[in-house]
């Protein structure tokens, strides 16, 4: 939940996530939505998003969400290829994902986002592009497209270690991202952040808050928060979380102050993830004299544009290698070790 002032009780955006809110039974979902409306002053809310998985979405639940004031739905589809869905352990069928979008539109949701993944074992290039086209044709206004990351300790990581699964080559994954971007550009979508495309006016306001370092309050086990000067996370163990809450104690862990150097590092990484980039004057304050040489290097490499004057904007190529160009700048400033040669 993001806030706009010094109190937590007047949020500008709400994001009810985890992928499982709509797994609740209707009565429980209604009670939760009623609790949110009773606990905060929602008059200034400009966007209320709820995440949903296709298999848990019903007409009754969609009606409850709309009646509560939810105006944006984020669907965790991931793929329309059966082999990919099996690889990811998802239980919905491709047809159900498409139907969920149609049901949401029928229920009155005019702001629908879909999550897709690329570089997943079992996918095909044609399958990825067909999925993008299908959702564009259904009138989806926003797409979040992520490249699969093999996380240590997950079942997928075990399959990779045993050689049962071969991750997609990075160059192939990059080529697919570029083709996806081209398809979406043809449909009028703007690539406004590394993993996000939207029709004009449908960018995620809540996520923009993260990328511009606005304060936000996370509720629930494992949720993260930022108050402008420090970051923390909540207790991840569900039982311990509720024991602490019921005892009247804040379930917060790992509170870390954000000093000026850390704030500058965050601003550079987050700014270069967005198509808007950084104001040059702001970037000069963050990076100092190192900026001049870096910006010329990044421009000549086709990673940033220096127009209009006064802004440093990543190109499409720059968004694809956002982490690398940010790391290079911070290495020149001396805040991190130099990145590996590319």
- The third-level CATH topology of the largest domain is pyruvate-formate lyase- activating enzyme
Structural class: alpha/beta
| DSSP strand content | 15-25%
Main sheet: strand order: 1-2-3-4-5-6-8-7
| Portion of residues within helices | 40-55%
Count of runs of 4 or more consecutive helical residues: 14
CATH architectural type of the largest domain: Alpha-Beta Horseshoe
CA-based gyration radius: 21 Å
N-to-C span: 38 Å
Number of domains: 3
Order of helices and strands: EEHEHEHHEHEHHEEHEEHEHEHHEEHH
Instruction: Tell me, briefly, the overall form.
Output: globular
Task: Supply database-style keywords.
single chain; alpha/beta; pyruvate-formate lyase- activating enzyme; three-stranded antiparallel β-sheet; globular; disordered C terminus
Write a short abstract of this structure:
This protein has 14 helices and 14 strands.
Write the layout of secondary structure elements.
Layout: E1 2-3, E2 11-16, H1 26-39, E3 47-52, H2 59-68, E4 72-78, H3 82-88, H4 94-106, E5 112-118, H5 125-137, E6 142-147, H6 155-162, H7 170-186, E7 190-193, E8 196-198, H8 205-211, E9 224-226, E10 230-234, H9 238-246, E11 252-257, H10 260-271, E12 278-279, H11 280-287, H12 290-300, E13 304-305, E14 311-314, H13 316-320, H14 322-333
Helix pairs in contact: 1-2, 5-7, 12-14
């Amino acid at each position: 939940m993001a806030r706009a002032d010094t109190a937590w009780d007047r949020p500008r955006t709400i994001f009810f996530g985890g992928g499982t809110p709509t797994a609740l039974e209707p009565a429980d979902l209604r009670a939760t939505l009623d609790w949110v409306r009773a606990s905060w002053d929602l008059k200034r809310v400009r966007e209320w998003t709820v995440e949903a998985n296709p298999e848990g979405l019903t007409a009754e639940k969609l009606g409850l969400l709309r009646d509560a004031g939810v105006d944006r739905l984020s669907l965790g589809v991931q793929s329309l290829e059966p082999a990919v869905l099996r690889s990811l352990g998802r239980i919905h069928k491709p047809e159900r994902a498409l139907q969920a979008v149609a049901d949401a539109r029928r229920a009155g949701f005019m702001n629908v986002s879909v999550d897709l993944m690329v570089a997943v074992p079992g996918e095909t290039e044609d399958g990825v592009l067909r999925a993008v086209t299908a959702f564009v044709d259904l009138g989806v206004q926003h797409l979040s497209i992520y490249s699969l990351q093999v996380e240590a300790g997950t079942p997928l990581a075990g399959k990779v270690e045993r050689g049962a699964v071969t991750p997609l080559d990075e160059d192939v994954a990059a080529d697919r991202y570029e083709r996806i971007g081209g398809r979406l550009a043809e449909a009028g979508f703007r690539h406004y952040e590394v993993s996000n495309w939207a029709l004009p006016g449908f960018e995620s306001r809540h996520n923009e808050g993260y990328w511009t370092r606005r304060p936000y309050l996370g509720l629930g086990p494992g949720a993260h928060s930022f108050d402008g000067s420090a970051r923390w996370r909540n207790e991840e163990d569900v039982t311990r979380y509720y024991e602490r809450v019921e005892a009247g104690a804040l379930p917060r862990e790992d509170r870390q102050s954000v000093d000026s150097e850390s704030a500058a590092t965050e601003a550079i990484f987050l700014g270069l993830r967005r198509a808007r980039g950084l104001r040059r004057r702001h970037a000069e304050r963050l990076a100092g004299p190192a900026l001049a040489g870096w910006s010329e290097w990044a421009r000549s490499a086709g990673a940033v544009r220096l127009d209009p004057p006064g802004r440093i904007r990543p190109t499409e190529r720059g968004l694809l290698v956002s982490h690398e160009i940010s790391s290079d700048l911070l290495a020149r400033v001396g805040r991190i070790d130099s990145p590996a040669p590319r």
